[in-house]
Amino acid sequence: MSAGGPGTVVPSDDGATVTAGDVSESTVEQATASKPDAAMTTTMRNDTVLTRYGMQHRIGMVFSKQQGPRPATSSDVVRSCEYRVMTTPTIRDTRHAVPTDPPHHIRRPVMVQEWRNATFAHWPVDPAHTQALLPRGLHVDTYAGTAWVGLIAFEMAAIRIPGTPRVPYLGTFPETNVRTYVRDGSGRPGVWFHSLEASRLLPVATARATYSLPYMWARMSITHSAGHVRYRSERRWPGPRGAGGTITVAPGSVVTEPDPLDVFLTARWGLYSTSRSGTLRYAPVEHPAWPLHRASAGHLRDSLVTAAGYPPPVGEPHVLWSPGVPVRIGLPTVVH
Fold it and tell me: Which phi-psi region, left, alpha or beta, contains residue 226 (left: φ > 0; alpha: ψ -120 to 50)?
């Protein structure tokens, strides 16, 4: 029986934040035996209270303000029992339960397009920090207790409404987005976009007006040379003006069998957005499984992640590259 929801976040006494992992029931009982009152009042999620009976609490990584990320230990369980949870929304851990192939077929897409020359650069981030950036109704989706922020650069191509011809200039352009991974109250996985940079003003204005997606107009380019792909972006409107950067990647070997983290970071079959009135909406996405390549980032200079509200990324990113996929997008519906 699991009561404390993987990914629950609590502070430890060194200013750290404790997140999901594995700690046995006996460890929790030992931790709470000396402080039963604390155990009975520590709220672990919206609908669950930490108790000493039949409970399995999970702790895996600690994000310390002084030390950065570090593995959790059983002593962190003792400390966590002395404090209330920092965030009441549940932080959900997929345990790798993201399907590799689309779980739905979109019979009548409202838009079709192609995503080409896609680079996925990701960094692990504090789930509690990510949760604070999300709208009501969405919960951070974590992998082994860790949230991820992605910087995704690619070429948007062949955009059109089904039954209409392609428009080369307006329908093909570079795009770079900053995103994270979420689930709604029913557990349905999807993407939350913090920002989307695009080089065509009309598609930017249309997407902002119709879907309320945070598109930004930017100067952008994608160039290829000597086995490398270079993406450049500089925001023009709205601010912060000049946000952007450059990422150069070298695609490598084909990923014949994606590992669970590869799937978690790329196989996302829907996107969430909020209307101007704050209504949460979900749009299904369908495409073939990504043909992935391992990749390395030879040069990466970016300010889009920090402009989205995250601290500067730490360490080397997890990088993948794909030649691309054709995409079908369904009609957005209200999330109840």
Answer: left
Burial environment of residue 277 by CB neighbours within 10 A (0 to 12, 13 to 18, 19 or more): exposed
234 burial level (CB within 10 Å; 0-12, 13-18, 19+) = middle
- 268 phi and psi angles, rounded to 5 deg: -120, 125
Q: Do residue 73 and residue 218 come from a single domain?
A: no
Torsion of CA 93, 321, 290, 118, to 10 degrees: 100
Burial of 1 (0-12, 13-18, 19+ CB in 10 A): exposed
Residue 192 corresponds to which amino acid? W
Distance CA 257, CA 296 (A): 18
Domain region containing 22: 10-86
Q: How far is CA 146 from CA 8, 60, 80, 204, in A?
A: 11, 9, 18, 32
Give the domain CATH number at 194: 2.40.400.10
Kindly state whether residue 93 falls inside one of the protein's structural domains: no
- List, as one string, the DSSP characters of 178-217: EEEEEEETT--EEEEEEEEEES-HHHHHHHHHHT---EEE
Tell me: the pLDDT tens digits for 52-89?
222 233 333 333 334 444 444 444 333 333 222 223 34
Instruction: Answer for the pair 199, 219: CB distance below 8 angstroms, yes or no.
Output: yes
Query: Where do runs of H (alpha helix) occur along 42-116?
Result: 74-80
Q: Are residues 254 and 121 located together in one domain of the fold?
A: yes
User: Residue 59 is encoded by which pair of tokens?
Assistant: 């702790």
Contact indicator for 86, 42 with CB cutoff of 8 Å: no
Do 147 and 273 sit in the same domain of this protein? yes
User: Cα 277 vs. chain centroid, distance in angstroms?
Assistant: 23
151 and 291 belong to one structural domain: yes
Is residue 281 packed enough to be buried (19+ CB in 10 Å), middle (13-18) or exposed (0-12)? middle
Q: For 206-233, what is each residue's pLDDT tens digit?
A: 889 888 899 999 999 999 999 999 999 9
